[in-house]
């Protein structure tokens, strides 16, 4: 059986997560800003420059989320109607969320 997973995270949390994201220009490693970024910020993996992506500003993130709501979110209703939608809580550490995703997929094997 096919399953479609909606990894659910509230908009304000997505906004704060992405607003804090910093990315290495060279290797694209991601970092989380604590509001006190080193200047310049050098990547621990490759020594490249770490900065905020132009599309990780609150205005740009809100625009992307508006596009998601308009263009992608309708698929949630579609797959709900097909009975194949599972909602997984995206709140927590990466390990916690990964364990929820694995448990969800395993329950359909
Ligand atoms: Zn790097």
Descriptive notes:
By secondary structure, the chain is α+β, with helices and mostly antiparallel strands. It has helices at 11-19, 58-72, 74-82, 94-106, and strands spanning 4-8, 21-24, 30-32, 50-51, 85-89. The protein has a single domain (4-106), classed as Rossmann fold (3-Layer(aba) Sandwich). The strands form two sheets. It has a three-stranded antiparallel β-sheet. Strands 1-5 form a two-stranded parallel sheet. Bound molecules: zinc ion.
Q: Can you describe this structure in just a few lines?
A:
The chain has 109 residues and is of the alpha+beta class.
What portion of residues is helical? Answer: 40-55%
CATH topology: Rossmann fold
Q: Secondary-structure element sequence? A: EHEEEHHEH
The beta-strand count equals 5
CATH top level?
Alpha Beta
Content of β-strand? 15-25%
- Give the CA-based shape: globular
**Poorly predicted sequence stretches spanning 5 or more consecutive residues:** none
Widest sheet: strand ordering: 3-2-4
Largest sheet: 3 strands, antiparallel
Count of discrete alpha- or pi-helical segments spanning 4 or more residues: 4
End-to-end separation in angstroms reads 8 Å
Bound molecules: zinc ion
User: What's the CATH architecture name?
Assistant: 3-Layer(aba) Sandwich
Which whole number gives the mean pLDDT? 93
State the domain count.
Answer: 1
Can you tell me the CATH superfamily? P-loop containing nucleotide triphosphate hydrolases
Instruction: Please tell me how large the radius of gyration is.
Output: 17 Å
Structural class: alpha+beta
